[in-house]
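Figure 2 data, in text form.
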Amino acid sequence: MATATFSSKRFDRELTMDPITFAIIRHRLFRVVEEAVITLKHVSGTAITNEGHDLMVSLYRADGSLLMGGVGFLHHLTSASEACKSIIRRFKDDIEEGDIFLLNDPFTAALHTSDVYLVSPIHHQGRLIAWSACFVHVFDIGAMNPGGFAPDAVDIFSEGFSSPGIKLVSKGQLRQDVWDTILNMVRGPEMVALDLKSMIACNNVARERMLALVDKYGAETVDAASQQLIEQSETRLRARLRELPDGEWQSRQYLDVKGEVFRVFLTMRKLGDTLTFDFTGSSPQSQYSVNCTKWASLGGLFAPLFPLLCYDIVWNEGVIRPITMVAPEGSIVNCTRPAPVSVATVGAIQSVNNAACSAIGKMLAASEKYAEEATAVWHANHFALFMFGQNQHGRLSIGILTETFAGAGGARTFADGVDVGGEIPNPISRMANVETIESTFPIRYLFRRRLLDSGGPGQHRGGAGGEMAIVPHDAPNGGLDYVLSGKGSRFPQSDGLAGGLPGSVNDYVWVKAEGGGNRKPAFEQSLSDLPGKKEPISWGVFPLRGDDALYLRWNGGGGIGDPIDRKPEAVFDDVASGIVSMEAAESVYGVVLKEGVVDAQSTRELRSQRRSQRQASMGV
């Protein structure tokens, strides 16, 4: 049976709603999203969701436009909006109360096949009044490699099950044929089932809480408040843009895959109350799965824009209206089907994040009023390492090393970045406890800690990244395997700002044991201490077996300002805390330490010498 769509006249700007009612409805909408997120985390059984927070929940209006953006990976707020709109176009008169639709086709709306959207219409008295949408990175999607990341895929057909939209729940009843078909195509179907059920529960809670709100205040009142909320966001963002200087800023990101280099090139133009992100000049789409689609790039640029420009503005359709994106078709940021995209979230999408963050930071730094909101690039290079194999409990285990979510904060114009401080596109990302991972996989951590000299040097230092090493432990098959989708170690990606330097690069080393024998229960504390042949790796599927070890490190945040303008006392504290080495203190920051204290005279002389050398090199 067809259902009518709720509509109301455009909210009259002159007839503002009672501010108390408006504020209550706005906060209730926040609470709807928050409670749905809690439900999703509590039902899910995977560390990537309930520990790493690789998730998203949001509310959308009846036409699919964003009403209330939630936390999690912010790339998905706009992509899930397109997912709702695509379902509306595809199913038209076949959208009924209690339905839930599944969509994960990247060329329709999703970021890659592993990020599965469940979108649910919300009806009130037979009228479609809203949508809820959520996603998680599912346990498996049936791609050529377990976990969904397929670095060697040649097209999307190797990247697992993909749907442009299918009805999973009809009128409140699970479609068992569809359910069985999906679970028949994946590894670990019981875990995938739990992922899907957590999203069904999430949407059910969102629907129930939304209807309770409508029952209390009435559909017309809630719709009017929603429309006013969107107009308020648009008005506030446009006002902020008018306060910022007009201009053009550029940023570049480079990806290294198996020796081939790809570029994401951004020119950001701000004029009046509009902002354009132009990716003309980016590389053609790649044969490798680092590509992303148009909708993914749009989400990628909004992920840093929401927190950097709209930190006090509700994230909804009003924020989207002043923004334009140009992404040439057939490029790495707008690939055409059937290009592979399974690594997109840590490939081109993250490079779009970084480029947008860098350009927005430059614009903010050019404004006296908003300079304190500027930031260097945060955690710029996820390493996306998926382990798979039989665990110590005799079950198939597939999952990501959540250290990739630990991140590192970029420096601010007034303070250092936060060590192991997360990332801009996901305000709630974090890594799981060591014990959680060791209880899930047959491995043992040798160490996990902050990485020396990883934060981008500057007057304000970027936050430190981290390093870790693992070995097999209590593995029934002698170990396990892992899929690594790195982007090389040639190019730093955590850009600095205003003379600040970038954070360190990622690095991955396979330590191959030599001579046989069993590893003694030792806890080596550095890469150099690990016995065996050290082979740099970055892309593909590798074993972790026997006495082998895996070492990896992740990037720090970018710095802001000239490193030789950093207070010597701050550099001393960094050295004492194990964040900056003695060598870097002198060679990078120009701070001389002798006998455990700052040599003030030698430091002044060295810094003066550095400035003179710079001026001479510039012909000044």
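Caption note: The chain has a mean pLDDT of 93.
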